[in-house]
Fold this protein.
Amino acid sequence: MGFLCRGPLPPGSPLFQGRQAQIDSIQKTVRREEVDGYHLIFGSRQSGKTTLLQQLDWLFRSSGVRVCRLDLQLLHCASHEEVLVILAKRLLEVLPGPSGQPRTFEGFPLKGLEFDTWLGTLGISGPFVLLLDELGALTPEVRERLAMTLRGIFSERRDLGLQRFLVVVFGGIELYQQDQSVSASNSPFGNVCFESYLPDLSEGEVRCLFSAGLRECEKAIEPEQLENLSRAVYRHTAGHPLLTQWFGRYAFDTMQDRQTLPNDDEIEQLARRVVSGTAADMSYLPRLFRGVEKYELTDTVSGLLRGKCLSGDSRQGKQLELLGVVRVVEAMCTFRNALIERAFRRFYGESPGGGSDSSSALELAGKSGQEIQHSTDDRPRVNALNALEPTAKSGHGIDYSNDDRPGVFISYARKDNSSRDPKKRWLDRFLEILTPFTRRFDFQIWTDVALKIGDPWHLDIQGQLTCVQAAVLLVSPAFLASEYVIGNELPVLCAARARMYPILISPSAYDQLEISAQDATGASVAWKMKDVQLANPPGETLMDMSEAGQNRVMLKVAKELAYYFQKLRQPPL
């Protein structure tokens, strides 16, 4: 099975640990003859909310319960009416008509009815679950209006015949305004939701996760070894799901390479790399720093580092908890785990004793080339954030740092970019054409030229493959002959359902390429290059064209990518 560090776990994964209480509570509600409340699942970032949603979706469908799932992140710019239109269309896809035929959407409001009344006309019988993911992606006004609509459905459920209609909402800190406390009673859903906060994993659950993730290793692992590894990792992560998975992947790869698990010293060395920002494929901590700045919690975190007390019921305490920076122990805030505390001390230059260590912060920012910058309130602040993130750059000046922008992966064969003739270095030429579009349309590019000496290249490449939305394939005989491209890059891109843009560099057996994979839900994905629209016809490869013709083909692909990423940011109406 191995370990995953990006994206939710696939349904039924043995790595899924620690959420049985939430599953049991929701399943108990589904089994009732009349739901006595909806469910609000919230928690800090990277705590497994979407993984839990996928597990519930899978469990319900497996037991014959009808499910409608909507990712509201795709509707982040939509109005309330537009959200209801999309929701209505999704419901009609799930609910067949009276004769068993698919229903057709005739516009909304349907026949002049309000949404709740229209929903009641669908004749929903038996249990039905509506899963709403990323509620916080909607604007505050749209969230409140959608919540009012769902509250109305719950209040009128008997009159509407929707006694077994259950709504499960997933969200995080974005659900709440900064002047509100964070609880179900102050959420947009008022008192119609059962509140469930997702805690981190216990030490026993971490042990079970490691046992499941390391099961495929060829060498048997002694229980004592597994216990020692779990304890060492738990000391750093305190059961943080994402960080625990990340350490687990390192342990798995170590076991595969040398047939032994990493010892305590090696785990500590890895923790130092995470804190210093030199660990590959670790963008989580910089995102925490950005979240603290976004919600103007810098002074609060600095106070915690200096030993100040912070109530878990305070607005700042709840915000930091949902950001994933702290956890609440006996009504007081403490850092979520030792690794996060060490990272913030390094980032803010706070020594463990509570004093400010400005030299540490300056060292982090980089003494050459990085200057102290000033924020809008004119207080001096070291621009350490960019130094902490891995920001390797190629000679093209493209920043390959891990961030939240959409991304494209360029898959190619080294042979096709190593010619002495610059006109035949196809990767370089395509990047030169594509770069201006990244600045205007705000997306990132990733290729293996971003790797530095000493980087774990396989882990880095695999991590990037799982998070990009598109891929450009520079196809040639060398490309098709590359075992790494065919066996390691393309299957991951297919599993992630990334959009492929093949460019034919030279004549090749491209039409023989077939890739099979499984996506995050376990569904099979079959991809054949002969079934995909190519950037240029097989009889007009780049090698057959003039330089101007070559540039026109690559420019067309660059424009298509820009259009695709622009379309991703728009609600699918």
